[in-house]
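#dry-run=false #mode=assembly
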Amino acid sequence: MENLLSLWQSTGLYNFTGGQAFMMLVGFLLLFLAIKKGFEPLLLLPIGFGAVLSNIPVAGIAEEGGLLYYLYFGIKTGMFPLLIFMGVGAMTDFGPMLANPKTLLLGAAAQFGIFASLLGALALNVIPGLEFSLKDAAAIGIIGGADGPTAIYVASKLAPDLLGAIAVAAYSYMALVPLIQPPIMRALTTEDERKIEMQQMRPVSRAEKIIFPLMLLLLSILLLPSATPLIGMFALGNLMNACGVVDRLSQTAQNELINIVTIFLGLSVGSKLSAHAFLQIETLGILALGAVAFAIGTASGVLMAKVMNRFSDTPINPLIGAAGVSAVPMAARVANKIGLESNPHNFLLMHAMGPNVAGVIGSAVAAGVLLSLVK
Amino acid sequence: MENLLSLWQSTGLYNFTGGQAFMMLVGFLLLFLAIKKGFEPLLLLPIGFGAVLSNIPVAGIAEEGGLLYYLYFGIKTGMFPLLIFMGVGAMTDFGPMLANPKTLLLGAAAQFGIFASLLGALALNVIPGLEFSLKDAAAIGIIGGADGPTAIYVASKLAPDLLGAIAVAAYSYMALVPLIQPPIMRALTTEDERKIEMQQMRPVSRAEKIIFPLMLLLLSILLLPSATPLIGMFALGNLMNACGVVDRLSQTAQNELINIVTIFLGLSVGSKLSAHAFLQIETLGILALGAVAFAIGTASGVLMAKVMNRFSDTPINPLIGAAGVSAVPMAARVANKIGLESNPHNFLLMHAMGPNVAGVIGSAVAAGVLLSLVK
Amino acid sequence: MENLLSLWQSTGLYNFTGGQAFMMLVGFLLLFLAIKKGFEPLLLLPIGFGAVLSNIPVAGIAEEGGLLYYLYFGIKTGMFPLLIFMGVGAMTDFGPMLANPKTLLLGAAAQFGIFASLLGALALNVIPGLEFSLKDAAAIGIIGGADGPTAIYVASKLAPDLLGAIAVAAYSYMALVPLIQPPIMRALTTEDERKIEMQQMRPVSRAEKIIFPLMLLLLSILLLPSATPLIGMFALGNLMNACGVVDRLSQTAQNELINIVTIFLGLSVGSKLSAHAFLQIETLGILALGAVAFAIGTASGVLMAKVMNRFSDTPINPLIGAAGVSAVPMAARVANKIGLESNPHNFLLMHAMGPNVAGVIGSAVAAGVLLSLVK
Amino acid sequence: MTEMMSNGVELMFAGMGIVFLFLTMLVGAINLMSSLVQRFFPDMPVMGAIPTVSSGIDKSIIAAIAAAIHQHRHKHK
Amino acid sequence: MTEMMSNGVELMFAGMGIVFLFLTMLVGAINLMSSLVQRFFPDMPVMGAIPTVSSGIDKSIIAAIAAAIHQHRHKHK
Amino acid sequence: MTEMMSNGVELMFAGMGIVFLFLTMLVGAINLMSSLVQRFFPDMPVMGAIPTVSSGIDKSIIAAIAAAIHQHRHKHK
Ligand code: NA
Ligand code: NA
Ligand code: NA
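#status=ok
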């Protein structure tokens, strides 16, 4: 009898707190979005699952002695996001950007979303109950970088408590890029601008592709050492792929290694989706600001492209500016799609890949600025 | 001269203890069983090798500073068995079980082997020199679950000293399933029963396969949180495979990741095969009880199937009950083979896969009970 | 204004020390050698990149909290070199050596390079400013083993400060084998000797290939336990491959696992290329002694082969003695090439593979001696 | 019977009870779920991509196969 | 405006400034690099091995392909 | 000669001695083993499975190859 009581007292049903139940629903919602809606499933499926596992009462899977507690070490040390960034580097082709380097400026402009939402977070402090520190605001702003590993890396350093919400916002909005960007792109461009055809790109030699990651790293070393963990691992992956002499390492970095780390990273991020940290009014602020960041980044990219089109000797379709937020390759595809609506013979995909990968560099640079100036 | 003496004194020959020599022989025996007899070679080869390495005098490979000492961390934290369980989940097809859910009860019945041998272990305490605590007995009983990662997970939590012997017993008896089960199955069934043909199964939709792992996890959360590390990782693997949107993660979980972890887990388990822990009369008890557990589990499964056949509206061949012990897919193949002997047109394989995978769930549930009630 | 100053003070440009700048150049030189000259790129590319990353001012990537600091744990525990050695073992075919076991003695003779350069290092202590301890000298000598993981394993135990220089020397000279060895081989052999054709080898049975790694391990256990971590992991890999029943583990050990560990090991080794440790007169000594070690090892192998040819009933081409240094399979290819120059129908490749893999065993044995006698 | 033994017996009953309770509830849940799925999503479109050649095979392998086939075709002529 | 807010504004200017500075310098560096490469190494030979079938594909796969082709050829005759 | 130097010389003799002792014993052991294997298991049946297409290649790759061949056969007709 006593035993039965103790059994009943050890069930999840008996021990559930409202917060845990709610967070578990959030986890299941993420699984639904990942599986049924196709929202960045590679990340949101393990994140959602991690959220479910870490909110199970009694089991303590995210507490000392539990699996997710140990896995989280890979985020605390920065190892997981950096290894993923290495794999992403190995998958990235800088060819289109090297053929038309001025598109890098579009990747710069789109980072305005980061700093605007940082300011927005600070402004939200006027709402009673909201208290974002400068570190919190910086970690929230980085959602606007539209780059998962960068956002997780920065958040784990500046605001580990907000990590769960920030990662979820970053990946969700990346999945929503095809919904968020088009109205902004249409509002800021004229039909004629959207019809602009761009010149065919020159081929880029292998030597340029090998030298570029080293040059990028060198510039970051000289100007912004705080960005070098991110940019360094990205450049390493890119170099391994471009140089052609370590293909077996490059293949492993892009496949098995990134897959293993993705599972671990997702589960660990999910373990930060605890009721304690997530069920705060702050989370609503983060979700709102993340959307704002994406919108402002998109707009800045498009406007910058319009400016550049005016001063450039070769035509630039302003739509490709939107790809500057990164969210590779989704944002480039969106630019291509909107372009085709106005001009069915106008394939912008390759032209948009330049600003798209430039956006990855841009947000890593912005991350370096935040890590170095926000103390 | 002095140097030569010191050299001689540093050889293995000089430093061997009888226990180390004996355990090394055990290691070589395991290698022989794995390679020449095909006993679960994926696990018993690294376990045997780990046993050899950890019993080398002077070298201290399983002591602080040695490789196996560090690898063992992956067992102590539960990480290795849980990751293997995730991979197994990704390889498991619940289709046959979902088509005929009542076969789950066969997977339940076969767990009686676990609790019977737990009792047996306690009963053996009457023998002078044997002293199994309740924790020891629970860890020994789990051998009857016929599931490697579950046994290792439970033993590492309840009785780490017995881990080596328990893992060896579990995998050895799994390899011996084609010898242990048939006589019991024949003794408990009539020729007519063995001839029973079962109805063809309905096809199972993708949606059911996606929802099932989540439902399984949810039930375990509500009823038995202590089983959720095991069931959770199993469900994660299964969901990754079933959902079809994260194939690259699922492939990695079933291949490279499980392979890497299998090597590490095997070596670490082997490192627990030290003379100190293994050369005890307890080990003989463990080996004897393990065999008993398999036999009783098989018998319970068959008897349960006979009972169900009496009350079911569709015929159930009692042979498939034996597959309820898990030991996937060996036990299902045994059921199929014995069935074919009596009726050469009766293919039971698919029907036996239902109870077979149900046995995995059943033993994970039993593991949860033990982890939660045995303190 | 103040902010701008603080920004400037956080740049790499402001913080660079001369030593860091120089070591970064060393890193870029290694990248150049790896990519453009094809010097062991699988290792030297990550080592070079690690050197660059760890010498970035301010960023602290190799200091506590940085990625390379955590990765280095895998070297400190010996885990990385041992796992690579396991993968190398899985890739090694002992067939040619088993067909002609006396070629093992060539692998023994070539280890003289190790001990000669050890003595050389001690002799260099007469130069003011140079102070090699016996441990340092032993770690330097092991470069002559021409085997990367062995050198890294030994150096990490005996002289972690010299690890960077030693690993760089070992891999660089392995890449230079086609330049270093031929003149020595030509100088020590006559045209007639180089023309010697060897008898075709008998086929080796699978059983022999399975038993060999176990026998090797057993001998090492009995005679030289200090070599068993290296020889044990090598034998494990080799057994996994030879036995044919754990192919999925063997494939993973030779591919994904070794690739992942190679990236991590390279970066960690590179992180030991700090100005503090590398910009010492010792480093020049290490580089000089490394070259001497390779030369002496080559010469000893060739001379041993000449002696053996005199006493053997079957002819032995002295060129295959040079392959005894290991540097698999480069040294065997060099022997083949030089042989073809004198006799275009004389294919020595398979005959040279015997001493070549024997050299791996020989240097692991020598490593065991050093680890056991140098305190 | 020692106290430990009686603990063991109790554990056996509790254990088998929970195992059966758990799996019986799972049977019920599956039956319910399956009937709901079959009623409301009879021809549920396959989600995500059809799991054809899994993404685990990287492009280079496909390329290698294609190259092999190509070469073969030429030799074969 | 609070102090934090003014910090934020300062951060925004510094941040966007550095981002533009960095990427503008990168544009310059790329242009310089590309023109140097195109001038001095116009037909730069491909370094290392031609990245044909990547070394990531292990030999056994190639063997499998070869075997498949071989078998096919025989069946096909 | 310093003490360290004499230690080094001693180490050299001990080291080369052990290396030769070890490898000579290994030669003996191999010869013994090979003759035993050849005498007692002359046609030793291959253990385990024949190491054909390794299990490392997962089924989907085989499927891809099969599909490629199949497609090729059709195009080829
Ligand atoms: Na970005
Ligand atoms: Na079971
Ligand atoms: Na060697």
